[in-house]
Specification:
Rossmann fold, binds NADP nicotinamide-adenine-dinucleotide phosphate, two-stranded parallel sheet
């Protein structure tokens, strides 16, 4: 364990698997008291049982009740949260015109609506307090269009844009706001988003572990950076995408890697 995080408390959404679960473990190793959020309460309880000082809050963030409950916890003055991680999210792959419209609606509800509501609650509490950290998990898919992951990339473009704007708004307030933009990361994301074929379609070097992504995000929000792109390969791709004509960056999914090997 090389990192020691000094957050006084944290709330992590999507803590039952993948990047969120890794963040919980890293924060627990630093002794940070946490509130962990997801739908699968059994998985959350397993995570909580493995560490000290973890409160489990089961919530479906695509529902109004779930979103409001977590926003209220984030806004609590009695039990302030120093680090809020908006990590819960999912994707849907396939041709836009054939995808289940109700599922796309839920994807927008989670990736956009809930993240916005919880971000508002976080900054509403943190800015008057003059301290706090907000880490919003976006994706390298936010940097360019992604055919066959169109709604996912669009939701993440929103997350990156919102988060960069909030980073600037928070400048000088004592509050740090960071967008975490991972590339391909081995988690349950691939089974949920029906992108399991990526495992064989993309080379091993393109994949990162959830632990490495989680650590990069936590390190950079602690430093107050506006954006974190974990891994040299994705840092390079993000830089190239920024100067590449848009017509070139449009390609088969995921556009950040652009071509199937
Ligand atoms: N893996 C990648 O390649 C990759 C790349 C770039 C960005 N990301 C982003 O990283 C974040 C974490 O994803 P992951 O890769 O760690 O995937 P994951 O293993 O599937 O984790 C997703 C988490 O979100 C939670 N979640 C899903 N729907 C929810 C809902 N309606 N209400 C509350 N929680 C919900 C899940 O818990 P429950 O099912 O228990 O609710 C789970 O804990 C996402 O925002 C994703 O878009 C992932």
């Amino acid at each position: 364990m090389t990192s020691q995080y000094r957050f006084t408390s944290a709330l992590v959404t999507g803590a039952s698997s993948g990047i969120g679960e890794s963040m919980v473990r890293l924060l627990a190793d630093s002794g940070v008291p946490q509130v962990i959020v997801a739908r699968r309460v059994d998985r959350l309880e397993e995570v909580a049982a493995a560490h000290a000082n973890i409160e489990v809050l089961a919530a479906d963030l695509t529902t109004d009740d779930g979103m409001r409950a977590i926003a209220a916890r984030v806004a609590s003055e009695a039990e302030p949260i120093d680090l809020v991680v908006n990590n819960a999210g999912f994707g849907t792959s396939g041709s836009f015109h054939e995808l289940d419209p109700d599922r796309l609606q839920l994807e927008i509800a989670l990736n956009v609506t809930a993240l916005t509501r919880i971000s508002r609650a976080a900054l509403g509490a943190m800015v008057p307090r003059g301290s706090g950290h907000l880490l919003n998990v976006s994706s390298v898919a936010s940097f360019q269009p992604a055919p066959n992951l169109a709604v996912y990339a669009a939701t993440k473009a929103y997350v990156t844009s919102l988060t960069e704007s909030l980073h600037e708004e928070a400048r000088g307030t004592g509050v740090k706001v960071t967008a975490l933009c991972p590339g391909l990361t081995r988690t349950e994301f691939q089974s949920v988003s029906n992108t399991e074929t990526y495992a064989s379609n993309y080379p091993a070097f393109a994949w990162m572990s959830a632990d490495d992504v989680a650590k990069a995000g936590l390190d950079d929000v602690a430093k107050g950076r506006a954006m974190c792109v974990p891994g040299m390969i994705y840092k390079g791709l993000a830089a190239v995408t920024g100067i590449t004509p848009r017509g070139v960056t449009r390609g088969p999914e995921p556009a950040a890697l652009n071509r199937r090997p």
